[in-house]
Design goal:
With 338 residues, the protein is mostly beta strands. The chain folds into 3 domains: 89 residues; 114 residues, Lipocalin, CATH 2.40.128.270; 112 residues, Lipocalin, CATH 2.40.128.270. The protein contains 4 helices and 26 strands. The strands form 3 sheets. Strands 8, 9, 10, 11, 12, 13, 14, 15, 16 and 17 form a 10-stranded antiparallel β-sheet that branches. It is elongated.
């Protein structure tokens, strides 16, 4: 009877006490949008010794002691602690990192960066050589924030990546500008193909996007970073609605992206200045200092200087540089020279 009472007491204490369990957790290489108490970013997790494709689940809590870095798949030993008297909006389990068992780079993140389209289905993309016909369609992947952006050759688009696996990818509805270009054939075909994408194949610098049945929709190649291509000498062909007829006196702009400086000639005066912001899409020039002589014709020089001060972004395609303002309106078109 005495031993039965002791056993019962032990069982009661065990029932009332906090229970601890160590569990294997897999943490995916990216986070997703989710809603807990409010909108937030959730880790994707699986439990067990092996990963099963398509079985990732949103994880709304925090793992104490674990510092997450996108782009890596983690295998963790996590202690689960059952809590009592927790708030209504709190987790009833406390999660604490015991040990990182594995941290492996996720090759899916090789998708990150800009890709230029070279084929739509079996058709090689050839941009018509007429002004306003558009540029080469491009896609920019950013798996850190699960976003895509780019251009169909005429209109810019953005969207969120809803899920990505080793070969599968899916994005939500794409938001796009609504310009009409001179020739919409390529832009329309690219946009239609983009909306059907469900799978991908990544091979070094080539990316194939396919539909759910494996039919090839788009072939793209990894693009050189735009800010690297920008590092060159450019001569103006068109400035603020006016064509530059005399290329011998046309404004010249030399950009050095390593020193973040710009020098050149506006068609009359020499200038130099700083680049205050430079990414693969954004470009802002700082104060520009220049000589102050007056030339017989100042229309192009004045427009050139005005365009530089308003520049906020840029595009490069087919050896042409387009500078754009805050509303994404073209200010100036320049061509690359040796």
């Amino acid at each position: 009877m005495k031993y039965a009472a002791i056993y019962g007491l032990i069982l009661l204490l065990a029932t009332c006490s906090t229970t601890n369990n160590d569990t294997i957790y897999w943490i995916n290489s990216y986070r997703v949008d989710c809603v807990g108490v409010g909108p937030m970013k959730c880790l994707l997790i699986q439990k067990g010794e092996k990963i099963t494709e398509g079985e990732w689940q949103n994880f709304y809590a925090k793992i104490e002691g674990f510092e997450y870095e996108p782009g890596f798949i983690y295998k963790l030993n996590v202690k689960e602690e059952q809590l009592e008297n927790v708030p209504a909006d709190g987790s009833s389990i406390k999660y604490t990192l015991v040990k990182i068992l594995e941290k492996k780079e996720d090759l899916k993140f090789l998708l990150n960066g800009r890709w230029d389209a070279v084929k739509i289905a079996d058709t090689v993309i050839k941009i018509p050589r007429i002004r306003g016909a558009g540029v080469v369609p491009q896609i920019q992947f950013d798996l850190d924030v699960m976003q895509i952006a780019g251009t169909d050759g005429c209109n810019n688009f953005t969207g969120s990546i809803q899920q990505i696996g080793d070969t599968s990818i899916e994005w939500g509805p794409l938001a796009s500008t609504r310009k009409m270009c001179v020739d919409m054939t390529i832009a329309d075909a690219f946009a239609e193909a983009l909306n059907k994408v469900k799978q991908y194949t990544l091979d070094a610098n080539k990316l194939i996007l396919s539909d759910a049945d494996g039919n090839e929709l788009l072939e793209l190649v990894k693009a050189t970073e735009a800010k690297v291509l920008l590092n060159d000498i450019w001569v103006a062909e068109w400035v603020d609605g006016e064509s530059v007829s005399d290329q011998n006196t046309a404004p010249r702009l030399e950009i050095n992206s390593s020193t973040m400086k710009a020098i050149g000639n506006d068609g009359c005066n020499n200038f130099n200045g700083k680049i205050t912001l430079l990414t693969n899409t954004e470009l802002t020039f700082g104060p520009i200092a220049g000589t102050r002589k007056m030339c017989p014709e100042m229309s192009i020089p004045d427009k050139f200087n005005g365009a530089l001060s308003l520049t906020r972004s840029y595009k490069i395609s087919n050896l042409k540089l387009t500078l754009l303002n805050e509303q994404d309106k073209a200010l100036m078109i320049l061509k690359k020279v040796d």
